[in-house]
């Protein structure tokens, strides 16, 4: 009986190892900008007077005085706003005193478009330039109103490496951001780790098929977004559809296997 039990246990272990090794999601993936749709995010800006602006993106709200000083915002970060002209201001976001991103917001002559150009600083020391164009889709004048991104461009597409985490889990790693997360598809929350990862960020997930699964991100128990991952039949393309809490539109990220 004991020999049979050991044989069954060994067979189960080998099967689990084979499943993990052959998981079609494992490998290196690079974002395909041309096939992805990352526009549609909305931001609400309110002018409170006395040089104060209130920004709401999804479930995050911050009020900042436009005086050039670093002020606390969500996720343990700081933001500094400096007015450069009636139609231009500069924004710098930091974490632990280190610049994460710096950008300039420019309002169009008719006041219906704002263009954001800036640079993102990654933990590995590299940078990525970006440009975002937002269109006014609701109320207000000047900076006040609801804005929706119609163009998002950047010169350094992100890359992820996915590996097996036992028989029923995966490990995600982003070298540029020095971010990693190991989880099981058991519905439990697993911590994300990295120098720019917000404190309390966790991920839970479940498989929905041989070539699909779902992940839910939370910060201190609060749901931030829900994502579905799907592979094409040949396993060379991964589509990630993300719905952020408080946002009316979803974003679609398409990755090519390297």
Give the tally of β-strands: 20
User: What form results from the Cα inertia axes?
Assistant: globular
Helix fraction by DSSP (H/I, runs of at least 4)? under 10%
Q: Tell me the strand order in the biggest sheet.
A: 1-12-13-14-15-16-17-18-19-20
Would you identify the regions where 5 or more consecutive residues have pLDDT less than 50?
1-20
The second-level CATH architecture of the largest domain is Beta Barrel
Order of helices and strands: HEEEEEEEEEEEEEEEEEEEE
What does this entry look like structurally?
The structure is a single chain. This protein folds into two domains: 25-36 and 157-257, Lipocalin (Beta Barrel), CATH 2.40.128.20; 42-154, Lipocalin, CATH 2.40.128. The chain is built from one helix and 20 strands. The radius of gyration is 22 Å and the shape is globular. It has one helix at residues 2-21; strands spanning 27-31, 42-49, 52-57, 60-65, 71-72, 77-85, 88-95, 98-107, 113-121, 127-138, 145-154, 159-164, 169-174, 179-184, 190-193, 201-209, 212-219, 222-231, 237-244, 251-257. Residues 1-20 have low confidence and may be disordered.
Please write out the topology.
Layout: H1 2-21, E1 27-31, E2 42-49, E3 52-57, E4 60-65, E5 71-72, E6 77-85, E7 88-95, E8 98-107, E9 113-121, E10 127-138, E11 145-154, E12 159-164, E13 169-174, E14 179-184, E15 190-193, E16 201-209, E17 212-219, E18 222-231, E19 237-244, E20 251-257
Antiparallel strand pairs: 1-12, 1-20, 2-3, 2-11, 3-4, 5-6, 6-7, 7-8, 8-9, 9-10, 10-11, 12-13, 13-14, 14-15, 15-16, 16-17, 17-18, 18-19, 19-20
């Amino acid at each position: 009986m004991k020999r049979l039990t050991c044989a069954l246990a060994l067979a189960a272990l080998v099967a689990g190892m084979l499943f993990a090794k052959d998981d079609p999601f494992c490998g290196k993936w690079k974002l395909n900008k041309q096939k992805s749709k990352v526009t549609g995010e909305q931001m609400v800006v309110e002018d409170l007077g006395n040089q104060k602006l209130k920004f709401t993106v999804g479930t995050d709200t911050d009020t900042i005085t436009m005086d050039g000083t670093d002020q606390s915002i969500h996720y343990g970060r700081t933001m500094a706003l400096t007015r450069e002209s009636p139609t231009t201001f500069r924004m710098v976001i930091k974490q632990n005193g280190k610049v994460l991103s710096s950008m300039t917001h420019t309002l169009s002559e008719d006041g219906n478009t704002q263009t954001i150009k800036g640079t993102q600083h990654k933990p590995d020391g590299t940078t990525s330039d970006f440009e975002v164009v937002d269109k006014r889709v609701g109320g207000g004048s000047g900076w006040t109103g609801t804005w929706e991104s119609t163009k998002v461009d950047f010169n350094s597409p992100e890359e992820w490496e996915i590996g097996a985490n036992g028989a029923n889990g995966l490990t995600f790693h982003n070298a540029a951001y020095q971010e990693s997360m190991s989880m099981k598809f058991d519905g439990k929350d697993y911590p994300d780790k990295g120098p720019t990862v917000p404190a309390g960020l966790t991920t839970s997930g479940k498989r929905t098929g041989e070539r699909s699964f779902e992940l839910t991100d939370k910060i201190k128990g609060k749901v931030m977004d829900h994502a579905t991952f799907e592979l094409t039949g040949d396993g060379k393309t991964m589509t990630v559809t993300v719905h952020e809490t408080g946002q009316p539109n979803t974003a679609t990220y398409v990755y090519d296997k390297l």
